[in-house]
Write a structure and sequence with these properties.
This protein is of the alpha/beta class. 42% of the residues lie in helices and 17% in strands. The chain has twelve helices and 13 strands.
């Protein structure tokens, strides 16, 4: 799965309650455009290019899967919602809010409606200082200088003073208090997508299952009775090996890890796929392995109904998954829920994402984060 884009936006206001305008703008960007990861301090700066009241300026970095022109369109909608009426008059003007798309990763975009990086950013101290405040590893792809180097050679010598600190929207979600978070779900529930997204947004390390490399998987979907036992044994061996290797690289008391599976899923699937005598043997082996595995501090189960799961499976297009029946998915869901009920010492959060798309819809992703926040605070 592809990583999210890193986008830098600059925000300014010099009409009305400038501080509230900027804060409200950040909230709307977070809700409608992408996940706001960092927010700079607010700098008060004199109007640039015309005589008017001083501006409040800040910069932020957000993560999104959206294309740059879509981000621009969404930013204009946010401006409009906050009351900005764009004028056809030439030159600089006072404004209740102004959002500029400064950078999109380190790409160069030169279209009729959008130029990225912003063509004047290197000449504007009120843009450079807030971006420097974000402490990003970013270099101008045309000028080949980082923000500090751009400030050193900037021709803008206006006074820009940091006057206010604004909280980033993610600061209210203390997810990093956990060292090890496991995301689970049925086939097609989106657990890997969400694990990667959360890890990127909260600066965590990932442990992702290597399911695509299992040679028995396509054979199993063609002949379940014959290949169920070797499939489940190979999964168990691979998961044990991977978790042992990956977790050994990290300090579970210091590092923050997000995994897209917990090894107990092996037992859930084995109970469904194996004959009774095979399952008894498998269970004995599993119990030995399970005792050695660290348990997640937070276990999140993404519930989706089978109809939606089948749609997701069809959409992602893996040939060997296309004939999975709905009753098999129902059994997996039941297996997970029975397991969760039996785990009295596991910190469990169940989130129903049956009507959610946390890749395409920012509001749906924020719904998931809000459920996590409420779990943490309870």
């Amino acid at each position: 799965m592809k990583s999210q884009h890193q986008v830098i936006l600059s925000i300014g206001s010099n009409q009305g309650n400038r501080l509230e305008n900027v804060k409200h703008c950040i909230e709307l960007i977070h809700q409608k455009i992408g996940t706001v990861i960092k927010v700079s301090r607010i700098f008060e700066t004199p109007s640039w290019g015309f005589d008017s009241d001083a501006f409040y300026n800040c910069a932020l970095v957000l993560h999104t899967f959206s294309a740059p022109h879509k981000i621009l369109t969404q930013a204009l909608k946010v401006e409009k919602e906050l009351g900005r009426i764009r004028s056809d008059k030439k030159g600089y003007q006072s404004r209740i809010i102004d959002i500029d798309l400064i950078a999109f990763d380190e790409e160069i975009i030169d279209s009729e409606k959008l130029q990225v990086p912003h063509p004047l950013m290197q000449d504007r101290k009120f843009v450079l200082l807030p971006i420097q405040d974000l402490n990003l590893d970013w270099k101008h792809p045309v000028i080949k200088k980082n923000i500090s180097e751009l400030l050193e050679v900037s021709s803008d010598h206006s006074e820009c003073e940091a006057i206010e600190t604004v909280e980033s929207p993610l600061q209210s979600i203390a997810l990093e208090q956990f060292n090890y978070v496991a995301l689970e779900g049925n086939i097609g529930a989106g657990k890997t997508t969400l694990a990667i997204k959360i890890a990127e947004d909260f600066n965590a390390k990932t442990v992702l299952e290597r399911f695509a490399d299992n040679p028995f998987l396509p054979k199993f979907y063609k002949d379940q009775n014959r290949y169920a036992f070797p499939l489940e044994m190979s999964f168990l061996a691979d998961r044990y090996q991977q978790l042992s290797d990956d977790l050994a690289q990290f300090d579970l008391f210091k590092d923050f890890l997000v995994a897209d599976y917990h090894i107990f899923k092996s037992l859930i699937f084995a109970k469904i796929t194996l004959a009774e005598d095979e399952y008894r043997l498998y269970r004995n082996l599993f119990d030995i392995v399970y005792r050695e595995m660290p348990k997640p501090d937070l276990y999140i189960y993404l519930y989706q109904n089978s109809e939606r799961l089948l749609q997701n499976i069809k959409k992602r297009g893996r040939n060997y998954e296309q004939k999975i029946p709905a009753d098999y998915l129902d059994k997996i869901n039941s297996g997970y829920l029975d397991y969760i009920k039996s785990q009295t010492d596991l910190n469990v959060l169940i989130i129903d994402v049956s009507d959610k798309d946390f890749v395409k819809n920012q509001e749906d992703y924020l719904f998931v984060l809000e459920e996590i926040r409420k779990k943490i605070n309870n």
